[in-house]
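Quick one, T. Sequence first:
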Amino acid sequence: MTEANPSPDIRLSDAARRILREALAEGGGSWLRLRIDEHFAHELLFEPGAEGDTVVDANGICLLLDPASAQRAHGLSIDYREDLQGTGLYFANPNRPAQTLPQALRRDCPATLIPHGEPLLLTQGERVLVTQALGGSFTVQIAGGRLARIAASEADALGREAAPTSAPPPASGAFDIQQVLETLKTVYDPEIPVNVVDLGLIYQCQAQPLEGGGQRVSIKMSMTAPGCGMGDVLQEEARAKVEALPGVAEVEVELVWDPPWDQSRMSEAARLQLGLL
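Structure tokens:
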């Protein structure tokens, strides 16, 4: 790790500093990794340092940033809030490009209403605000403050290129059950910036070889609330992404509700991201 010169100026509110100190104490770590992707989605993770990292002292909290994240972080403010809008960490980043402001759709675009799961058609010229861009799909705020999900295949309607929607395959090109889990980590709850694995929504993931060759992958997953309308959408996204992996011949993704999901199933990284540590 190296201390970049100059390092980005990152400021924490007193509330955010308190939450992050508690997280570090509970996790037994000395630093947190701050990752800011090309869509300006922010993540705080327990990860080891790497060559080229920038080390930033943010009001007494040690943050590690990879070179790309460091370039996007100058002037960043991090706050922790508990209000009617929700509980968690909030990132105010002055470096967000104009495309993260409300924008007009370039063409008619099919979408899914959140959280009901109802299909709808957004029309060319309609103004939307991208609130989340993870795993290839987009969550946008539309008229009336409602949220909708736009699939990765419709990225051009937002003037963007479709991002890779799955983890890179293993170098050997052979089937790897760990790669299935890594790919499931590219499936995100459209309202929460955490993947379904770290949220604890994957109850079971198994593979069985088929007589004709290839693997049959069986996945049992749940939702954060019974009857969530986005269940079918995330179920299909998980199936399609896993089906594209090397050596996978069949995929079954089953939605289950027993036992009911609760926050105890979330990973430490997810609880940190949502300010629950």
